[in-house]
Amino acid sequence: MATPTARKKARPAKVAPLTHIDAKGRAQMVDVGAKDVTERVAVASATLVMKPTTLQRINSGSIAKGEVFAVARVAGIMAAKRTHELIPLCHPLPINVASIEFSPAGRGRLEVRATVKVSGKTGVEMEALCAVTTAALTVYDMCKAIDRGMVITDVGLVEKSGGRSGDYRRPAR
């Protein structure tokens, strides 16, 4: 056992200031005017858990409301472009690219992935998260008549690059 003098003293973790809060604790939109324009990319993902037969019907194109992936893809792209209208304090951004991809993730599991790019002064993490959740919600909406038990899980930022804070990659779980 270490003696008290040999133990390292615990230091409080350094916490980054919240940029959306002013000195008086009020919400504020961050002033990005002095930041450099850089390419910024964010990728977000979500998983839809459903009956295996629901996923089979989506893949075979036999959902009564239409082509699920096409509609969900457009919904996700629209959500990325309109994030500033949905999330207070987000900046309107001239998005260069927003894409949505779907891939099987096991029996009755569908992964949705959104990638958003911009040349701007602020990041696109919120745009990617809005895109992926909206695409997943659209899949749910189009298939709820046959599977109301679907669950959207594991929504999160996968990676981002660009900007002052540098690159981020979600650790493997």
Characterization of the model:
The protein has helices at residues 52-60, 68-81, 83-86, 125-143; strands spanning 38-49, 95-104, 109-120, 151-161, 168-169. By secondary structure, the chain is an alpha+beta fold. The chain has one domain: Molybdopterin cofactor biosynthesis C (MoaC) domain (Alpha-Beta Plaits). A 5-stranded antiparallel sheet has the order 2-3-1-4-5, covered by helices on one side. β2 and β3 (109-120) form a beta hairpin. α2 (68-81) runs antiparallel to α4 (125-143). The two termini are 33 Å apart.
* Residue windows where pLDDT falls under 50 for at least 5 positions: none
Number of domains: 1
User: What is the CATH architecture term?
Assistant: 2-Layer Sandwich
* Order of H and E elements: EHHHEEHEE
* Assigned CATH class: Alpha Beta
Question: How are strands sequenced across the largest beta sheet?
Answer: 2-3-1-4-5
Write down how many β-strands occur, each being a DSSP E stretch of 2 or more residues.
5
Q: Per CATH, what is the topology?
A: Alpha-Beta Plaits
Mean pLDDT: 89
Name the structural class: alpha+beta
The termini sit apart by: 33 Å
Name the shape in a single word. Answer: elongated
CATH homologous superfamily caption: Molybdopterin cofactor biosynthesis C (MoaC) domain
The percent range for helix content is: 25-40%
Instruction: Estimate what percentage of residues fall within beta strands.
Output: 25-35%
Biggest pleated sheet? 5 strands, antiparallel
- Figure out the total of helices: 4
Q: What Rg do the Cα atoms give?
A: 20 Å
